Structure formats: C-alpha cells, structure tokens
Amino acid sequence: MSGDDIVGLLVALGLLVYLVAALLFPERF
C-alpha cells in the first residue's frame, strides 16, 4: 500500500466513525 492509499483509508474510516457517532448521539451534533 502506498501513502495515498493509507490516507484514503483513514479518511473513509474517519467519515464512517463520524456518521455512526452522529447517529448514536444526535444531540451532540
């Protein structure tokens, strides 16, 4: 894996975590 692949993976993972958190704790967003 190249550096760009890792960055893309981290961005996708971050967005997924953010979406899950927004669904679980809507009062915080």
3D architecture notes:
The protein is an all-alpha fold and 29 residues long. It has one domain (1-28). Helices cover 76% and strands 0% of the residues.
Tally of separate helices: 1
Give the rounded overall mean pLDDT: 93
Order of helices and strands: H
Main beta sheet strand tally, sense and closure: none
- Total strands: the figure is 0
End-to-end CA span: 34 Å
Give me the Rg, rounded: 12 Å
**In percent, how helical is the residue content?**
over 70%
Shape: rod-shaped
Report low-confidence residues grouped into runs of 5 or more: none
In terms of topology, how is this protein built?
Blueprint: H1 3-24
How is this structure best summarized?
Helix content is 76%, strand content 0%.
Descriptors for this entry?
29 residues; mainly alpha; 1 helix
